[in-house]
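Section 5: illustrative case.
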C-alpha cells in the first residue's frame, strides 16, 4: 500500500520465498520482544538465515520510513504541546571509548548527563507529542548539543502545534528567537540559580515535559538505544524499526 512501484516491482521479486510483509512483521516482533542480537533472533527459526534476514531488513529501510511518514499524516494529535529532547545511542562499552574505530568519522564521544558518563556513538534528537507519539528524529554525532538540531527537526516535521517544551539543554535567547520567527514558542525550565526560576518553573509544564523520558525508556526496550548494527544503513534500519514498533504500540493503545 505504501511501497513505491520501483520497490514492489524490483528485479526477481517473484522469486522471493519470504515476503516483504513477513520480514517486516518479524523485525517488529524482534523489537517488541527486546532481542538485541539479530543472530540470536534468527536462531529461533530453523528456516531463517541470519545473513539473508539481515540483507532483506536493510532493503526494507525505504518502506519502513514511508510507512512511518504515512502514519504521521493519519494520527490526530490534539495535544497543545510538543516535546523535544535527545537520547544517546552508544555503539560500544565506555571502556572502549577511545579505542573504538567503528563508524569512524560519523560517531564520536559525548556526555550522558543523567548517568554522568561519557559514551562513544550517536545522539538521537526527537520531537514527541505530549501524549507520547514520536513525530520525527535526527541522528547526529554524540557531541552535538541538543539546541543545534532543534531548528532542523522543526523544519523537517512542520508540526501544527506551536508550543514546544524542552529541558535546560535548550536554554538560550538565540534559539528562542529563531523558533519565534518560525512561529513557535519554546518553553524551558530555568536552572535553580537563575533569576525568577521559582516563578517561571511551572510544575505542570515540567510534568508534561517528563512524558518524553517515559517514551525514551520504552524505546530503549525496543533496542533504539542498544543498537548493535555495524553499518550506517543497519543502524538507521534498526532505529526506524524501533520507532515504528513504538508508534504502532501507541496507536493500538490509543485507538483500540
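Designed sequence:
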Amino acid at each position: 500500500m505504501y511501497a513505491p512501484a520501483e520497490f514492489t516491482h524490483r528485479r526477481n521479486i517473484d522469486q522471493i520465498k519470504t515476503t516483504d510483509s513477513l520480514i517486516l512483521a518479524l523485525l517488529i516482533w524482534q523489537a517488541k520482544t527486546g532481542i538485541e542480537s539479530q543472530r540470536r533472533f534468527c536462531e529461533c527459526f530453523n528456516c531463517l538465515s541470519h545473513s539473508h534476514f539481515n540483507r532483506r531488513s536493510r532493503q526494507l529501510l525505504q518502506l519502513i520510513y514511508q510507512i512511518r511518514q504515512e502514519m504521521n499524516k493519519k494520527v490526530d494529535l490534539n495535544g497543545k504541546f510538543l516535546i523535544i529532547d535527545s537520547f544517546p545511542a552508544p555503539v560500544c562499552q565506555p571502556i572502549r571509548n577511545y579505542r573504538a574505530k567503528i563508524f569512524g568519522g560519523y560517531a564520536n564521544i559525548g556526555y550522558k548527563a543523567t548517568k554522568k558518563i561519557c559514551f562513544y556513538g550517536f545522539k538521537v534528537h526527537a520531537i514527541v507529542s505530549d501524549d507520547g507519539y514520536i513525530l520525527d528524529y535526527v541522528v547526529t554525532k554524540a557531541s552535538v548539543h541538543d539546541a543545534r538540531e532543534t531548528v532542523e527537526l522543526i523544519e523537517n516535521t512542520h508540526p501544527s502545534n506551536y508550543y514546544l517544551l524542552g529541558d535546560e539543554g535548550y536554554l538560550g535567547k538565540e534559539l528562542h528567537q529563531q523558533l519565534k520567527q518560525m512561529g513557535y514558542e519554546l518553553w524551558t525550565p530555568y536552572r535553580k540559580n537563575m533569576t525568577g526560576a521559582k516563578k517561571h518553573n511551572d510544575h505542570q509544564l515540567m510534568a508534561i515535559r517528563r512524558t518524553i523520558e517515559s517514551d525514551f525508556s520504552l524505546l530503549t526496550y525496543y533496542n533504539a538505544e542498544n543498537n548493535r548494527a555495524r553499518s550506517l544503513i543497519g543502524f538507521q534500519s534498526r532505529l526506524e524499526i524501533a520507532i515504528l514498533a513504538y508508534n504502532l504500540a501507541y496507536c493500538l493503545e490509543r485507538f483500540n
